[in-house]
Design brief:
With about 170 residues, the chain is α+β, with helices and mostly antiparallel strands. It has one domain: Aminopeptidase (3-Layer(aba) Sandwich), CATH 3.40.630.30. Helix content is about 30%, strand content about 25%. The strands form two sheets. A four-stranded antiparallel beta sheet has the order 1-2-3-4, with helices on both faces. The protein has a three-stranded antiparallel beta sheet with strand order 5-7-6. β6 and β7 form a beta hairpin. The protein is globular and about 45 Å long. The mean pLDDT is about 95. The protein binds coenzyme A (COA). The site of coenzyme A has 20 residues, from β4, α4, β5 and α5. Coenzyme A (COA) binds next to β4, α4, β5 and α5.
């Protein structure tokens, strides 16, 4: 367990918590990301009618870890064997309090254990300043198509890792 000044704890997602992560993901996109994307874009990114089984299988596949405070999950992320950070979401009521920084510390720790030399992520407009603050550089601006042909802008970002990184 990793603790920081707010007493956040980091641990693996448990089986049965997948839909808690969906709720956090969905609520954050429809509030926080709504500052940078239109209503139709956030609807396409996270539709209310999502296939729950498919989401559950996806979460089990990417094996996320969570930040927990007093028994509540307030953020989650992951790092894949190829260095991709697939998800990075902080609860809408816990923005700018160091939750994602705590998650990034865990990513870097796990990346070192996997002997990864590079991290990558497809980063939203909203999250770009956070990733830049943590050493990621924009490699490419991208236009991705979600359901119903709605397009969204994001950025392919990468960070080189070296021994001793935090
Ligand atoms: C991006 C996100 C994960 C950051 O989470 P967070 O817990 O608020 O981030 P932290 O509090 O750890 O921020 C650390 C630093 O990153 C930078 N940062 C984070 N969010 C920022 C923002 N919106 N604008 C400018 N800088 C920002 C700041 O330097 C910040 O330090 P400070 O608060 O002392 O100034 C969060 O805003 C989020 O969930 N966004 C919506 C979901 C999303 O877009 N996820 C990425 C999908 S690719």
């Amino acid at each position: 367990m990793v603790k920081n000044r707010f007493d956040f704890a980091v641990r693996d997602m448990r089986v049965g918590e997948e839909l808690t992560l969906w709720r956090l993901f969905h609520d954050t996109i429809h509030t926080v990301n709504l500052g940078d994307y239109s209503a139709s874009q956030v609807d396409a990114w996270s539709p209310s009618e999502r296939d729950q089984q498919q989401w559950t299988e996806r979460m089990q596949m990417i094996s996320p870890f969570v930040v927990e405070l007093d028994g509540e999950i307030i953020g989650y992320s992951d790092v894949q064997a190829d260095g991709l950070v697939d998800h990075m979401f902080v609860h809408k009521d816990w923005q700018r309090r160091g939750v994602a920084t705590c998650l990034m510390g865990e990513i870097v720790k796990r990346a070192a254990a996997l002997n990864l030399k590079i991290l990558s992520a497809h980063v939203s407009i909203t999250a770009r300043p956070f990733f830049e603050a943590h050493g990621f550089l924009v490699e490419q601006k991208q236009t991705v198509t979600q359901g119903d042909g709605v397009t969204l802008t994001n950025f392919l970002m990468r960070r080189a890792l070296s021994a001793g990184d935090e």
